[in-house]
Amino acid sequence: MEATAKVSKKIIQCSAVANGTAKAFKQGDPIAARPEWDKDRCIRCGICYVYCPHGAVERLDDGFFDVNQKRCSGCGICHRECWFGVISMVEEG
Ligand code: SF4
Ligand code: SF4
Questions:
Q1: Residue 62 domain boundaries
Q2: Taking the complete model, does pTM exceed 0.70, yes or no?
C-alpha cells in the first residue's frame, strides 16, 4: 500500500539552513555572549553537545553539560537547539 502521508518541506528554526554564513572564529577571539546552562531543567539528552560547531560543549562527570569558555564562539547554536530552553545566552561585558 502506498504511503499517503505528505512530507512537509517547511524548515522550522534549523540552525544549519544558511550554511556557509558563519563568521570565521579563532579560539580566544572576544565573544558577544556566552551560554549558561540551567541544570534544573536539563534532561541530559546531549543535543547541545552534538550541535556545537566548535566542540565547546563539554560533558561533566555528573552527565550534565557546560561550556569550555576557551573554545566557545558565542554563536548561540546550543541555545537554539536545546528543546527545553535550558541554555541562555548572556551578553558579555
Ligand atoms: S540540549 Fe538542553 S536538555 Fe539536552 S543536554 Fe543540552 S541543555 Fe540539556
Ligand atoms: S555558543 Fe556556539 S560555540 Fe558556544 S557552546 Fe554554544 S554552540 Fe558551542
A1: 33-91
A2: yes
